[in-house]
Amino acid sequence: MKIKKILVSQPEPQNDKSPYSDLSEKNGLKIDFRPFIQVEGVSVKEFRQLRVDILAHTGVIFTSRTAVDNYFRIAEELRIVIPDTMKYFCISEATAFYLQKYIVYRKRKIFYGIGTFTHLMESIKKHKEEKFLVPLSDMHKEEIPKKLEQAKIKFTKAIMYKTVSADLSDLTDVNYDILVFYSPSGIKSLLENFPEFKQNETLIATFGPKTAKAVKDAGLKVNIKAPSKEAPSMTMAIDQFIVDGGKKKK
What we know:
By secondary structure, the protein is of the alpha/beta class. Helix content is 32%, strand content 22%.
């Protein structure tokens, strides 16, 4: 089978030096990008049902910019004034700097990690006396509350935004040689948008075991898997598949 067109269920990379650009150039491919999922903030009504008192907390743990946006959005919609004494613990320096959109950065107590929650936990453990609020998505990593519980940190989990299927109605005919998925949510979106979808000759590439399982659970077949020892990235796995002519190595 000659591979010509690939659809990646993610936003288009901002950088021209993306591995997908190299893959396209090397193999003469047309690669399109389209997010199959999107993030929506929960409504104030939904948030109230959680019975979470924002001001009962003395620290906030931010794992993403989306968490920052929705925390301050909810506070504003509830007409809550966040006190200057609030402490902020951010997953990375970039997320910490993003706080400048909402607060006067130099006047606040802000701590940040190097991109992993494990590293951020070092700062959190030094402030065990705080009561933390953790704004999260409805599809968050269980690692976060688990690590906080293990360290006996006082915290409240607050679902402030959720992952939903994007409207793909303009893609009425999903006519690609390979569909690339990075999360189970992408598979869910495919089936919600195209309930009559039949795989036929379309190849499906997945990243991670959970995504591969979602494909199988949907009654579909995974043709390309990443990461692997030979292909740690999705683009390497696709390139290897093309080079091998679509044949599995024995």
